[in-house]
Amino acid sequence: DNQPIIYHGHTLTTKLSFRSVVECIKQNAFTKSPYPVILSLENHCSFEQQLVMAKTFKEVFGDMLPEPFIKQDPPMVALPSPEQLQKKILLKGTIVDEEYEEVEEDIDHDKFVETQQSQASEYDSFTESKEQTNMATSINNTTTLTQ
């Protein structure tokens, strides 16, 4: 039926249908945290099965998949923050198949590192500002309670 299956080769694990795993991820992805879930895929499927996988991701995850941000025109200045990616599922993967060589995106490493450092700095500033606001609110609440 050309449906992909998920299993770990050369082990005693049960083979699962790709769709059932994707549906389970959707159902449970954000029960503990709203922050993004990253699915790292090692893909040994044929091209036809990869098309089925893409269709399944779109059908099941729908709006949980963010718009592509690596290859936008014009290019993004910075990657989205974890806050911007809340309730999103990110897909990362490589294709490993006899017919295809392993495929990796060409990413400017220095630019990527610079972007990550910039975002970390912005996140630290945001967190620090949020902590200061929480502390000020706490002090105001304490002051109100003691007056």
Write structural notes for this entry.
- It is a single chain.
- The chain has helices at residues 18-28, 47-61, 109-146, and strands at 5-6, 16-17, 37-43, 89-95.
- The chain has 147 residues and is α+β, with helices and mostly antiparallel strands.
- Strands 1-2 form a two-stranded antiparallel ribbon.
- α1 (18-28) packs parallel to α2.
Characteristics:
single chain; 147 residues; alpha+beta; two-stranded antiparallel sheet; 4 strands; 44% helix
In short, what is this structure?
This protein has 147 residues and is an alpha+beta fold. The chain is built from 3 helices and 4 strands.
Overall morphology: globular
Sheet with the most strands: spatial strand order? 1-2
| Alpha carbon gap, first and last residue | 73 Å
Helix content: 40-55%
Protein structure class: alpha+beta
Helical region count?
3
Strand-and-helix sequence, N→C?
A: EEHEHEH
Radius of gyration: 21 Å
What is the beta-strand fraction?
A: 5-15%
